[in-house]
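WARN retry 2 of 3 for item q-0093 after timeout on previous attempt; input resubmitted unchanged.
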Amino acid sequence: MDRLGWDAGFDASWNELGAPGEPGRVSRVDRGWSTVLSLSDVTEDPFAVRRVRNIGADVAVGDWVVPSADEERVEHVLPRHSAFVRRASFEGSRAESDTVAANIDVVFLTHSLALEPNQRRLERELVLAYDSGADPVVVLTKADLVDDPEPARRELVEVADAVPVVVTSGRARQGIDELRAFAAGGRTLVFLGASGVGKSTLVNELLGAQVQATTEVRSGDQRGRHTTVAAELLELPGGGWLVDTPGVRTLSLWFSGSGIERAFADVFELMDHCRFRDCRHDREPGCAVRAAIDDGSLDPDRWTSLERLVAEEAALEGEQRTKDRLADRRRGGRPGPTAADDD
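OK item q-0093 returned
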């Protein structure tokens, strides 16, 4: 199963469960159903495809699952190595997570060179990418539509810092081999970006086939419609896997680990040099952050962006505490179910 991305960690988790049934990897999730791939004994087709119910199971594209004995439903979801998680964007959601892709190794944060560089969106994407456990890579698309991609690249590098930035053009096949190299060793890649930025064109070039539909964008603002309607796990020629996702307009934070600190490492480094440990970075004397803003070495918009993201995370944590209190009240103060209760 190595061809599907199986490794010693998944093998250990599966054996801890008593090696029940044949595990498979989720290639697509539809309402109530998961498409699961496993290795096939049929020479003509290397993979067996099963459709199993996932109601009640937290399943995402890229997950390793074990179907029930009758193969009617997902029985177990093996612990994830990584997961790109955002706050659910559907209306009325309160502190609910949405896992875009699981068990990924590299996150391609995709931006079109035909649009104005968006540092604020990239900062948010980097926070989520770092928290996913995968390695972020910034992919700049549609280089064939601009005379000189360098100014936009430099502007995003200011935010990306040490993260690789790859300039590409699907139509001109620029940067394709560089992207494919990230899949070496059977790794799983995921494309993330807004609609119309050129993800599907790059996916088709990497796959060597017209697998994903593409559409023209509006000439006025370079916006496009969603051409990818559902996330799907696709095998790359030469090894490795790729997840193409529908265009994501809004990326709301989920609970952050070290993502904010890593995405804003330069600002946190400044904070360490403030005179006072509890500096609020407002009017305190000896504030290194304010000094950097005043001398032009720190963009005030970057500082404002950091404050906004920290506030967003704090608000999310507050919502979760309220949700937990309400759940506790409904239980009459009794503790919630544990894993042992489910056995």
